[in-house]
Every structure is written in C-alpha cells, then in structure tokens.
Design brief:
alpha/beta; D-Maltodextrin-Binding Protein, domain 2; 2 domains; eight-stranded mixed β-sheet; 10 helices
Length: 270
C-alpha cells in the first residue's frame, strides 16, 4: 500500500508533533524543503518501503529544539557542532554525514559595498560593514544564521551593534529573507540550493562564492527512543539507512534544478 507524502506541514510551535502509526516525522531545515529535494526523493522512498514521511521544515535551531522535545523521529539539519551536542546530550543515537553544498553571498547588482572586488567571504562582509550597506540576516538561529554569525566573527565584525540600522534581522526562513533582501536591495547569505530554486531575485546576484569557509554540510540523526519513548525507531532507521545507501545517495545526486545539481551526497562508504 502506498501512502501520500505530506510536505511543508504547518507548524504550531506550541503544539508538539508526534509520529503516530503509519508515518514518521522528520524535523528538518528549511533549505532542503525550499529546494524541492523532498518532493523529488520522498516518493521514491515511500514507493520502495511503504513508509510515509512527514516533514516539519523550520530553522535548524528550532528543529533541534523540537527534536529535544521528542517531536519527531529523525533530525536532518546543517549545524554540525549543534548536531554533535544533540547526540552527546543523549537525544540522538548517532550522527552521519548525508550530503553537502555551499553558501553564497548575494546582493544588489550595483554592489554598493564593492563586494565583488574582494577575495574571500571575510573581506566581503567587512566591506559591507564598512559601507554600512543593508544586510538582511535570518536572525532565527537556523543553520544559515549560525554560519553567518561565525563568518562575521571571522571578519572581526559584530553586526549586532548595528541591529535595526544597516543590519536587519528578519526572524524568518531563507525564502522570506531572500524576498526581503530583494525588496530592500540588501546583501544576504543563503544556501546555494535555495538560491537556485528562488524565483523572486529582483536585482540580486551572487557576489561572493567559493571560499572554503562557505562549505555547507548536512547531517542526519535518529532520535533516541530511550530519551523519547514514542519515537518510531524501526521505520526511522529504515529511512536513514535508505538515505545513506546507494539508492538514497543516488536519488539525492540526481535531483537538479535548471540542470544544476543542488546537493552532493557524501555518506561514508558511498
């Protein structure tokens, strides 16, 4: 029997989401949903296994908090230090590399901070701060926001001092933040997959890319049933094993937008 795929569930943060019989819940970062990856690969998994997957797509920080509240069976996010802390604290059984892509810095074509003339992401961010050019930050403790904060530190800039002036914290997901950046002609940091799938670019274009510091690794974790007794441990393990297998890794690699590969599988041993 086949089950329908439910994607992008509306999330009420005050109401826990639990996995009942017949499906598993994945707490996920928004970038994997915004890119369309789940629409491409989850039907293949359900076809092969009969297991339905429901995705709650929020920022990585919120996904981690939801998982600590036992609201789900699997965690798929992109903030390695936080993921390892989640496992160390006993909430996850183990963490595995799943896939990667990278972040890019986008901004207005006229590039008022002259970012395009810099080499590396730290000088680019320093130039934005020096020019006091508008920058839209997610400000939501997501994986992208965590990366952004690390990059500002590398650039020896504390943008929080400029909060509400040139530095605007949206408190929103990546798609909404890109929309705001487009409307403001502001700079912002985005994962490449969401950028490729994003249609409302306006005058924005990629201005800084390719720095190794922009590497973006995704990890996957099974939530620990000893900590969360209602976890659907067996089907969650089937899902993770499939994603890490040749079949799942091939499905991830095959997903493309505008003839461009969005995610690059790198599960160990594959």
């Amino acid at each position: 029997m086949r089950f329908p795929i439910f994607l992008a569930l509306a999330l009420t943060l005050s109401a826990p989401v639990r996995a009942d019989d017949g499906f598993i819940v994945v707490q996920s970062t928004t970038s994997t949903r915004n890119s369309g990856l789940y629409d491409a690969i989850l039907p293949q998994f359900t076809e092969e296994t009969g297991i339905e997957v429901r995705v709650v797509a929020v920022g990585t920080g919120q996904a981690l908090r939801n998982a600590r509240n036992c609201d789900g069976d699997v965690l798929l996010v992109h903030a390695r230090a936080a993921e390892e802390a989640f496992v160390a604290d006993g909430y996850g059984l183990s963490r595995a590399d799943l896939m990667y892509n990278d972040f890019v810095l986008v901004g207005p074509s006229d590039d008022p901070a002259q970012v395009a003339g810099t080499t590396g992401i730290a000088p680019a961010l320093a130039a934005i701060a020096d020019a006091r050019a508008p920058f839209a930050s997610r400000g939501d403790d997501s994986g992208t926001h965590k990366k952004e904060r690390t990059l500002w530190t590398t650039a020896r800039v504390d943008p929080s001092d400029a909060s509400g002036t040139w530095y605007r914290e949206t408190g929103s997901g990546m798609g909404a933040t890109l929309n705001i950046a487009s409307g403001m002609n502001a700079y912002t940091l985005t994962d490449r997959a969401t950028w490729i799938a994003f249609s409302n670019r306006g005058d924005l274009r990629i201005l800084s890319e390719g720095d190794p510091a922009l590497f973006n690794q995704y990890g996957i974790i099974a939530i620990n049933p000893d900590r969360c007794p209602d976890v659907k441990a067996a089907p969650a393990r089937v899902f993770i094993d499939w994603l890490l297998s040749k079949a799942g890794q091939s499905a991830i690699a095959a997903y493309r937008r505008d003839d461009r590969q969005l995610f690059f599988p790198n599960a160990k041993g594959e």
